[in-house]
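3.2 Worked example (two chains)
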Amino acid sequence: MITTVVFDLDGTLLDRDTSLIRFVQDQYDRLLLHDAAVDREVYVRRFVELDRRGYVWKDQVYRQLIEEFALPLPWDTLLTDYISEFHQHCER
């Protein structure tokens, strides 16, 4: 009898790296972050670095990005968008 089933989501059922990059690129475009003085690819690369493969909470990632790039949005707006929109960018 099977009593437990474990799924390895990141990297097995979900291509987390591709999904995250697609989401961050889209978030940058949708929320007009291009109006900030930061290049899109620089922003995406820095987000991925700060995220540390999901080991850093996103609120901390967004707070750091806002500080580094003087972004025009509050961190909680970006986090709320992440929570509500990330699933649309998931790749298997």
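3.2.1 Second chain
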Amino acid sequence: MGLLDILQEAIGGDTAAHVDQVAQHASPDAIGAGLAAAMRSDQTPPFGDTVGRLFGQSSPMQQAGVLNQILATLGPAAASMLAGGVLGRMLQPGQTQLTPEQASQLSPAQVTEIAAHAEEQHAGVIDEVSRFYAQHSGLVKTLGGAVLAIALAKMKENATRG
């Protein structure tokens, strides 16, 4: 069974059950593009809400990974100003990345706010965060049916074009 067959089957049924299959057959770039389309869709929760939800389901290492992706996209100076400066207060002078211990001190609500502000500053942060989560299919499954359906449909659309 090829990727298009898997995507077609997933779109028509239990999307979460097919995420692992899709992850085995699709490139991280394809998965990331599908996730980014879903995160931009007006049929899914706002980007910040989605990132906050994923953050709450993540391990401390994954939490640090996504926050460091936001820091890398915006730059530490800009990112440290987000959400009332919570990231700036956590970073030591000269530090450009959060440790898993530091990241785990943040709440999903704080990360929702950080992600929402990051999107306002740099719309490309959605693509970068989506590429990060594309490497974590276990987390992607927690997104829920609507987000997964849109992501998989976009992947199918992109695959049939290419």
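3.3 Remarks
The chain has twelve helices and no strands.
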